[in-house]
Amino acid sequence: MEYVIGEEHAGKTLKTYLRYVLGISSAMTTRLKQLPLGLCVNGEHVTVRYLLKAGDVLSVSAEDKESSEHIVATKMDLDILFEDDDILVLNKPPYVPTHPSHGHFDDTVANGLAYLFEERGQPFVFRACSRLDRDTSGVVTIAKNAVAAHHLHRSHLESTTQKVYLAILRGTLVPTEGTICGCIRRKEDSVITRVLTEDDGDPSLTRYRVLASGPDHLGRPLTLAAAEPVTGRTHQLRVHFSSRGCPILGDFLYGTEGDGGIGRQALHCCMTSFPHPTSGQLAAFFAPIPSDMAVFLRFFPNMNEERIKDYVKNQGTAVLDTL
């Protein structure tokens, strides 16, 4: 990552610039100090006591030297939406876990990326800055180095990261725009299922808007909704919509398994946006709607992927000029 020092920061120590301008923690600064090329100005290694001058080019590098252990490299098709030196953004298909877990040691996004980087001859450390359930599709962001991961984590904590999901719901959701809130906790006698309560559990908040509604081929009501989870609780959208009597289509935990002929919950993270970890400029990425959800658009008059994309571009807290 490179930064050109402006007049307003001339005379500051590098340590001050790292902490208060770039927001890099003391622990990360210590790690950078220990790397031969961790902190360089105009191509030369410097200490954190260096006094910056206008026009200086600061290079911050925490490149990995070794790959993550215990991630099996597995060849797979990866739908990469964007990649540069700091981030990799991909469109995760349904039925693929994000990271290895019990029963999924070699069939995850992490395994596919390990193979890709092995083919490139580059070390790979898996740093997923967003994760999706196995059966949820859509945008996943990966940090390619520790500094980028630090910035993306801070963006998440400061709520400058935005996600928009597309969900197909069984039923008619009313009102057509609003919020769903409450506390989410594990259901008693279950390690998987969550429930929504008034004050027992982790606070949760979702903003949503109905994009279209209509009957399916059997005359049963369906709703197409865009949802922005302000918090990130386990199964949040699935629990929230089910609590309104409109479970996500195909959700076997909170709705009806196999409902509508789709073999998973009809939930897709169609957009994410965040300040780019190097430039600070807003970066936004749209993941096309998967085919198993796209077939349901025929039940919603005048609704297609382009109209959905236009909605995403013009709603929420971000100005999505990069879509």
Question: Could you outline the blueprint of secondary structure elements for this entry?
Answer:
Blueprint: E1 2-4, H1 14-21, H2 26-33, E2 39-41, E3 44-45, E4 57-60, E5 80-83, E6 87-92, H3 109-120, E7 137-143, H4 146-157, E8 162-170, E9 177-186, E10 194-197, E11 202-215, E12 221-229, H5 236-243, E13 267-275, E14 282-286, H6 291-294, H7 305-314
Parallel strand pairs: 7-13
Antiparallel strand pairs: 1-4, 2-3, 2-4, 5-6, 6-7, 8-12, 8-13, 9-10, 9-11, 11-12, 13-14
Number of helices: 7
CATH architectural name of the largest domain: 2-Layer Sandwich
Order of helices and strands: EHHEEEEEHEHEEEEEHEEHH
Instruction: Give helix % range.
Output: 10-25%
Overall average pLDDT: 87
Strand content: 25-35%
